[in-house]
Amino acid sequence: MGKKAQTPAKGIDKIAERSEVSLGELKAVGAEAGDHKEIRIAIAGLGNCASALAQGIEYYRDIKEEDMYINGLMNPSVGGYLPKHMKIVAAFEVNALKIGKDVAEAIYCDPITTPHFVPPEKYPRTGTVVQAGPVLDGVAPHMRERFHVYEDGDPKVKPCDVVQVLKDAKAEILVNYCPVGSFKAARFYAQAALDAGCGFINCIPEFIVSERVAGDKDWVAEFKARGLPCAGDDIKSQVGATIMHRMLAKLFLDRGVIVKDTYQLNIGGDTDFENMKMESRLVTKRKSKTSAVTSVLPYETKCRIGPSDFVPFLLGKKICYIRMNGVTFGGVPLEVDVKMRVEDAPNSAGVVFDIIRVMKLALNRKLSGRLDSIASFSFKHPPIQPPSDVIAKQWVAEFIEGKRER
């Protein structure tokens, strides 16, 4: 008589289920009834990623809550919130070509290289005018001309009172999209979010939410004290270089193959890669990308990850090369090479869609401090690196259902 099939270990079937099911099917704690709700967001840095985000709001405007598998959306609905419920109510820039324009026009201004999946002539005016923000260290010296940065003393451009603009716009969430290396600018906008009473999403590799930098204030404690949520740091794309590299490292670990050494080389043609030609702006970027991969492994290995070159004619495309050198059964070598080509900005916008909607649930539930679940799933350098992205997705599902505090 054959053996009785074994029941999966407790929790394993749940993890498998969560990895396949849309988060939109879950009963969310903190959800609002009806279809007239909105999420009022502000954006610092209206560049390529913000352009993709803004275009996405319009592109997916007509989807319904019951829709499941929509091109490019991991979760059409989160807590009953659809893309159409997101509204950009404030935007800050240092680019003179964008300042003073409606967001609908500014998201297509030079040097945007993001594909126009919503044609400019079909994007409706938002009524939100782009305001001049402070330059601080948000622009590398070699990028001033490329970014069309306004000059100090220019009578046509007057930097705004960011906090007051946020308050007047009744913004609920501030999304930081400043360029890589914006240490002071990122913290300026974090403080502005605190002072204006906004939740804060840090999409760039400046460590504000994930860890406390020596000599810096305890930002998480500040947000907690003000009763506001925060999430970060360094956005992880839907299917990008980091998630691909993490999955390969986890596969090697699960199948008993030792990672002897590995590297990830990235080239691209947008202003993100042009900005990163200045190595001094890459310290936290390299740390963020590297730790996202090596944290999967329980042992140390040789690893080199980061942007490698700026190739102007690639425009918004990013090309990634991943090499994994492993040691398998009998000490025999195993080598894996992966090449991936993506449009960089849209690849991250869908992830930010979900973070915004989860943060809205947190605001509704009056939660404060860091949101660990969505951070572990959506950022390269979260406060808690998950053992796998499947488990991190389960954490997000449990947070939505009110079964996890953060």
Features:
406 residues; Rossmann fold; Dihydrodipicolinate Reductase, domain 2; seven-stranded parallel beta sheet; 12 helices; 11 strands; 17% strand
Overall description:
The protein has about 400 residues and is an alpha/beta fold. It has two domains: about 20-235 and about 345-400, NAD(P)-binding Rossmann-like Domain (Rossmann fold, 3-Layer(aba) Sandwich); about 240-345, Dihydrodipicolinate Reductase, domain 2. The protein contains twelve helices and eleven strands. The strands form two sheets. The chain has a seven-stranded parallel sheet with strand order 3-2-1-4-5-6-11, sandwiched between helices. Helix 2 (about 50-60) links the parallel strand 1 (about 40-45) and strand 2 (about 85-95).
Describe the structure in brief:
The chain contains twelve helices and eleven strands. By secondary structure, the chain is α/β, with parallel strands linked by helices.
